[in-house]
Amino acid sequence: MSMFVRKNERREIRRAVNLACQVVRERDFRLVANRALDVSPDGMLVASESDLELGDKVIVTFRATGLDLWFDAEAEVARVEAGRRAGDRGRAVGLHFSTMDRVKRLILRTSLRRVPPPLPRRAQRIDWARSVARFA
Prior knowledge:
Elements: E1 15-25, E2 30-40, E3 43-47, E4 57-62, E5 71-81, E6 92-99, H1 102-112, H2 128-135
Antiparallel strand pairs: 1-2, 1-4, 2-3, 3-6, 4-5, 5-6
């Protein structure tokens, strides 16, 4: 057993996918991405060469189940990967879904259970406060 408590800030498990999608920036209605690298009911990581910034609003459309259902959501750019770290697959953008129908979110969560998570690309951060509290 590790002495340290690992920090996990995610509410949902990401799932590794290679999924066609359309991500359109709200500001100018320009297509900024068309391939998802991973997805969860809370958001997705998309490959993108566009100059997106944190907080940019986008509209996302994709199909992720065998039911031929379309998923539409408004999202916000939560992370920008420049693609310079070892293990990065090029430039990518992390999106957080700000709106998605509850029923569709549940359907997505259920269908993703069969998909494995992506392999970790770096060590998980340590939650120092909880690690110290463990010994107190």
